[in-house]
Amino acid sequence: MNTIASTPQTSALVIDDEPAIQRLITTILEVHNYHVVTAGSGREGLATIAQRRHDLIILDLGLPDLGGLEVLKQIREWTQTPVVILTVQDSEAEKIEALDSGADDYVTKPFNSGELLARLRAALRRADKGKVEEPVLRFGNLTVNLAARLVTRENQAIKLTSTEYALLRLFVQHVGKVLTHRQILREVWGPEHEKKTQYLRVYVQRLRDKLEVNPNAPTFFRTESGIGYRFFANWKTAVSDAS
């Protein structure tokens, strides 16, 4: 294990067996004031997590001992620290299984530093926001008042059905996070509907029609092909307001 001294503003654990990837991620994160710890195997990573708390974890799926998914499942048995998966595999099934097992996001190798940093920032923000109740959320011209169950765009109330509202509420509570088809169907329609993806397509399109400026070029409801959906918003304009 290699510990890199840096400004301990945010602590990141990188679990990856490729030294070149470890060095690359460490360099990228150090420049942005992260404190970086690296582990070259799944067991070493789990031992490191048990020894001290980290703000986030970057986890490779192709590890030499324990598989990355097994490491993730063990992590989720006792901590909700944000986990961003790093994988050379572009398999939809593998990504879906990782997300269903508790990953917050994934980045496919090769990656660019801007995308990696953006995914990490989003995961950290979600973790921070999860600590408090936020009754009113604003995303640009869209406002969702969870306390009043009221949705407005440019101060005009938008009428939603109970199912549309439940789906929107799930999205805004997980801004930036990829939600798989299975996760969404289970949360909104129930476990018995996990395979009925036609429900989801219909209702996502209804939300786009009602809430997007241009439903044919959606900015909020992004499709993750073959995997699910992501509610995307500029975090700089996503503000809570309890008044």
3D architecture notes:
With 243 residues, this protein is an alpha/beta fold. It has two domains: 2-129, Response regulator (Rossmann fold), CATH 3.40.50; 136-240, Winged helix-like DNA-binding domain superfamily/Winged helix DNA-binding domain (Arc Repressor Mutant, subunit A, Orthogonal Bundle). 37% of the residues lie in helices and 23% in strands. The model is unreliable at 3-7 and 235-243 (pLDDT under 50).
Summarize the structure.
With 243 residues, the chain is an alpha/beta fold.
Low-confidence stretches: 3-7, 235-243
**Count of discrete structural domains:** 2
Q: How many strands in all?
A: 14
Mean pLDDT: 86
Category by helix and strand content: alpha/beta
Give me the Rg, rounded.
19 Å
**Global morphology:** globular
Termini Cα gap: 48 Å
Order of helices and strands: EEHEHEHEHEHEEEEHEHHEEE
Number of helices: 8
What do we call the CATH topology of the largest domain? Answer: Rossmann fold
What is the top-level CATH class of the largest domain? Alpha Beta
Share of residues in strands: 15-25%
**Main beta-sheet strand count, sense and barrel state:** 6 strands, mixed
Fraction of residues in H or I helices: 25-40%
Strand order of the largest sheet: 1-3-2-4-5-6
CATH superfamily of the largest domain: Response regulator
